[in-house]
Amino acid sequence: DGGITQSPKYLFRKEGQNVTLSCEQNLNHDAMYWYRQDPGQGLRLIYYSQIVNDFQKGDIAEGYSVSREKKESFPLTVTSAQKNPTAFYLCASMEQGMPSNQPQHFGDGTRLSIL
Amino acid sequence: GNSVTQMEGPVTLSEEAFLTINCTYTATGYPSLFWYVQYPGEGLQLLLKATKADDKGSNKGFEATYRKETTSFHLEKGSVQVSDSAVYFCALNTGGFKTIFGAGTRLFVKA
């Protein structure tokens, strides 16, 4: 079955440490996204990528970095500059072509906590 | 700019009750509209969508009608079950690569 795989499901970060969240998709989608979800709140866009080797900042990119070296993969690094990284992180992808009526497909998320 | 406004939760219902979750939007052009559902500890799943005015999206007993005159896309279900307990997100896309999500509405269904 096609889908999006996020790993790990739970991740712990020490102060001053960078951590990388993995996102892999086998849906052959061009567009990929990272969102942050805080308890009881909606989704906030961190970064998105429309094509390999290209990505754009979303609404809350500070303290995060991404890469898009392969179509299937869009890892997110939470750097030590992100002072409040505890949240649920969701990766998504979307088919290109007619983006206006295409839904986004989501992984099951990674929950990041501070030790 | 484009935005989505949902009714605040939580919404608490008894099993077999009628559900309505209100959603209104502001957008230029003719957006596509979506409802997503998020079960505890999981990502979002598409529940239903509508791509033009007066379209009705439906899935698993849930329905929503795209009302351009009232800029609304309210989610309804005639008889909710305990298994429907989740967070529901209304969303729109105006043709670009970004989808605008509402804040989400948490639904609790009691047996």
Written description of the protein model:
The complex is a heterodimer of chains A (115) and B (111). By secondary structure, chain A is an all-beta fold. Helix content of chain A is 0%, strand content 49%. Chain A contains no helices and 11 strands. Chain A has strands at 4-7, 10-13, 19-25, 31-37, 43-51, 54-57, 64-66, 76-78, 87-94, 105-106, 110-114. In chain A, strands 2, 4, 5, 6, 9, 10 and 11 form a 7-stranded mixed beta sheet that branches. Chain A has a 4-stranded antiparallel beta sheet with strand order 1-3-8-7, with no helix packed on it. The mean pLDDT of chain A is 92. With 111 residues, chain B is an all-beta fold. Chain B contains no helices and 12 strands. Chain B has strands at residues 3-6, 11-14, 19-21, 23-26, 32-38, 44-50, 56-59, 62-65, 75-77, 86-93, 100-101, 105-110. In chain B, the strands form 3 sheets. In chain B, strands 2, 5, 6, 10, 11 and 12 form a 6-stranded mixed beta sheet that branches. In chain B, strands 3-9-8-7 form a 4-stranded antiparallel beta sheet, with no helix packed on it. In chain B, strands 1-4 form a two-stranded antiparallel sheet. In chain B, a hairpin with a 6-residue loop joins β10 (86-93) and β11. Chain B is globular, with a radius of gyration of 13 Å. The interface between A and B is medium-sized, with 24 and 25 residues.
